[in-house]
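Known limitations

Structure tokens in this collection are predictions and should be treated as such. Users comparing against experimental data should check residue numbering before alignment. To illustrate the layout, the record for AB hydrolase-1 domain-containing protein is reproduced below. The input appears on top and the generated tokens appear beneath it.
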Amino acid sequence: MILKTHIKPKTLSSPFKGILLLLSFLIFSCGVQHNDELIIEKQGSFTVGGTVKKSPGTFDPVEHGAFNPANQSTQGQTLHGDHATVLFQHPVNSRELPLVFWHGFGQSMRTWQTTPDGREGFQSIFLRKRFPVYLIDQPRRGLSGRSTEPTTISAGTDDQLWFGIFRLGLGTEFYEDVQFSKDPEALDQFFRQMTPDTGLLNIELNIDAVSALFNKIGPGVLVTHSHSGGQGWLTALENDNIKAIASYEPGSNFVFPEGEVPEAIPYLGGQLSARAVPMSDFEKLTEIPIIIYYGDYIPEEETQNPGKEQWRAALTMARKWTSIVNKHGGDVTLVPLPEIGMKGNTHFPMSDLNNQEVAEHLFEWLQEKALD
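Generated tokens:
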């Protein structure tokens, strides 16, 4: 793949035009096919949301201006934190509605970028389909690590725990037909994309930041994963610019109308509860198309495999939620990937070996709902 940044020639002086023409000649003289190019017209990054914390007193630039980690005064100073960081790219001839990608627990925007085994992720796949793409690092995570509240970051060894919870396999052994690369380097890259919270996890901060993003960019489609799935429903209750939601393996915070909340679903190691919201709020979710995806290795019955068990509960709750939303006039499509012939997907279908096929299904749904 060749990534080109498109800059309108009228903004360049003659020497720069000549350099661009030379570079273009060199690229095409190397035999690169036109359909392998990805031309970006506009890109950048910014922050949205956040708070400002201020210490009492007056800052003295002489007395307090020297950096001294052992004895640093905060008197009269501010801290800007709790914002989300957004990276965006617009391809040439882009479609009207952008896709906004929100990561899950312990993850960052890397979820949507290059796959652990080095292939294109959803970022590039959907740029090639001419969608403007916005990638989020939610507050107190990844590039948004500046928190206004302290926390303790653990250095506990837990790779194999997540190997099981993310349904790559059991212990250290991959499931036989898993769609995740079994190359040791891919697994090494996968473990290294985990990132901690740098402050207490605050769902309201996250919702406010993502809502601020939609206020800034206008109408778009929200694409969530895992932990951000439930936060996605809650954000849609706050912001009418979310015109549709695609959610990969939502695991918590399903919202039901007051009086129609199902009982908590027990699973090995815990239980999954739903949230109640007023019907007037809930009805907002009936006004937008929603699609939900789950991968493979999710049992229908209780099992002694804790990594699978919580996803059995999540899929069970998702079925109840789909039924309630559609009962009230909504448009929710629930897609367990094995039921449509896509076998072996993990908790990260966007990173699996068949991620192009997974993305194509979403693209066809976007077309069907006139969101393209």
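For this record: The chain has two domains: 1-32, 83-368. The longest strand covers residues 37-54. Please report discrepancies through the issue tracker.
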